[in-house]
């Protein structure tokens, strides 16, 4: 039972970071970024490489992963999404992000092959060694307090950035009405660049925690993608707070459901079905998502926005 | 030196020419009203002056400098302000945040000074600071939008139908405020208005546009007294 | 020195695969290029055809040949596939039946599913529709992967060799000719539809749904028809694919497959019926070229990876530099140019 809770919480923590990251890409460029999961993998391999080459546990390399993931995402924005932002339609942007996913994912595969040869470590289906913490009368895996602390710190920082700083206000303004922001002298491109940096950085940070719980390969990012989309959708597209809430909802229900299925003898491979069903159900039945409950304005999912 | 000079401007969207050969100018502390029937290109004229649509030929001079090819945010920094009819405030932000944004490239004390100036013009803003703009009425929003422009200490403010969202009895009041603006903030104003009569009563000069061309350019009084034009194009 | 028979075999095999991809991209062109509906569940409709062949061919064959079935499907399907193929070698008619039945089952199923999938389009913005369809496509795959009696789960299912009554190389040639025939039929259907009033209606809905409705177009019905046709075509491709490969594996029908078809249509050019053959050719050429290069470039990593990454780059480049594709859409001229000239010169 305790293990179930631990698993659910850690998973939800990761999803929260991923979901907020995906949301940032979505609300700035309106692109459902299919390459988002790969930013997480960039973080993993960055932390892994550094911890093998320079020593120290991967936890210590989280800031490096943050920076790396941010950089890759920033490049994706500057080279691909910003030039296309106003020139093409939403579906094409999505298709482009799928293409980007191909490029990133398979580049990671190549890197994994090379890293395995040069550093002589397993670079597929590997896990990180965790430390144990004594608490609540039992021994808990270190990833639990570590991920919770980091997620809390990052989300709090993001809140401060968005609501208490000038840059944050400029970001929110540019997201709502880029034309007007531009007219007032705000460089929308610079502000969006910051959002994209954060998007990738958050995903990369989430990625570092993954190998402490499951076996990781370059394709793991893709499998994190659908739950991330579900979290953003259920939480209410366009709402960062909603994404966080959605992440915990999806994270917990998925974990609990998988457990129940196992009890009944149904293969846990059916677990993704919950995610897919959640996405479809939300979009067709109550598209505003959770955030529709507290904010009057809903993100436009209907045609002719 | 005139604050704004527009010479032989031809502008539009894509391949379509909407504004044809328009020439006018605005002096220091002058209010120029742009009137005319629907679809005559009045809004497009303002956009062209600000740099938001395609200019085919002609020139726009701002305080003597040729700004015809300059991007909008640079014109904004030179002292030109443009207030579109809609989308002129950030609805999801509070009034305070909107104003903060308008002053984003200013130093702390400068912001304080200008804010004081704006509040003396529009005292009601004080009580609205923490409200999200989407909860405000049409008139209140226009005041926020205008304040945002004024915070940037413009020399020229171009207003596109500022009274459009207002209840009729508020229109006269609003336009009076516009004149106050000219007197107290020392700005020149270009005002596009559907309410031709009210606009002509408060303005110094008038530009009558019909189907993209200028049918009258001169003092507002003259236009009001010209029975023919006033009746044909303005329904007066 | 490469033997001529090897080259021939390669060409025939490539020809079959090309035909299958032409059918798939024609189906995508119809729904996404002409109608503008992002059919990201294409892999699922493709799968319906393949799964029908996988689930039915061996079972049907065994029943027709009077072979008694022992053991679990997932473990024995390949074994029985071989047995049934031996029987088909003696009886071409059986081969025909085993080929036809999955077609007759898969197409109506796919059509039904396609019509169903057209309804969310009424309520969702395009990119969310695409995500919904992807989710649906993955559900189909996950179910097939885990419900073993269907196509053997992760073991996959063996498929009967319906041309076993011919000797090589005639066998492969027959497969290719059959596929080519279907491909030509599918493409011709696309071409005729595109130039017909129905094609104009599709493009009208794509360009401005509200205006089309204002002119009396029943948008929902148009979508349903287009999806029905597109899905049916994809299912046919799926059946051919299963018989060509000789087996069916659920993991072959992922979103990546859909992405490849979208790539073909984007590179080929949306809105022009010439694009499916072009796009499919470009993709296959690139794919084979990269595999070929593998032999000559000793690199310390799997060249397949580079192939996929390169395809990704290709798509991005096309969207950025040549979004109209290799065969751009041309406005359809309905009235003779000379006739209009006479009129305009008089005005």
Distance between the termini of chain C: 70 Å
Largest interface: A-C, 51 and 43 residues
The radius of gyration computed from the alpha-carbon positions of chain C, rounded to a whole number of angstroms, is: 22 Å
Strand line-up in the sheet with most strands of chain C: 1-2
Low-confidence stretches of chain C: none
Please sum up the structure shown.
The complex is a heterotrimer of chains A (305), B (236) and C (347). Helices cover 39% and strands 27% of the residues of chain B.
What does this protein look like?
The complex is a heterotrimer of chains A (305), B (236) and C (347). With 305 residues, chain A is mainly α. Chain A has one domain (2-217). Chain A contains eleven helices and two strands; from the N terminus they run ααααββααααααα. Chain A has helices at residues 2-29, 36-54, 62-85, 90-119, 143-164, 166-176, 178-183, 188-209, 220-235, 240-264, 272-285; strands at 132-135, 138-141. Chain A has a two-stranded antiparallel ribbon with strand order 1-2. The N and C termini of chain A lie far apart (46 Å). Chain B has a six-stranded mixed β-sheet, sandwiched between helices. Chain B has a four-stranded antiparallel β-sheet with strand order 2-1-4-5, with helices on one face. Chain B contains nine helices and ten strands. The relative contact order of chain B is 0.19. Chain B is globular, with a radius of gyration of 17 Å. In chain B, β1 (4-13) and β2 (16-26) form a beta hairpin. The longest helix of chain B has 18 residues, at 168-185. Chain B is 39% helix and 27% strand. With 236 residues, chain B is of the alpha/beta class. In chain B, α3 packs parallel to α5 (138-151). The two termini of chain B are 34 Å apart. Chain C has one domain (4-251). Chain C has a two-stranded antiparallel sheet. In chain C, α2 packs antiparallel against α4, α7 crosses α8 (197-207) and α11 (255-268) crosses α12 (275-296). Chain C is globular, with a radius of gyration of 22 Å. The relative contact order of chain C is 0.17. The model of chain C has no long low-confidence stretch (mean pLDDT 87). Classes of the chains: A mainly alpha (305), B alpha/beta (236), C mainly alpha (347). Chains in contact: A-B, A-C. At the A-C interface, α3, α4, α9 and α11 of A face α5, α11 and α13 of C.
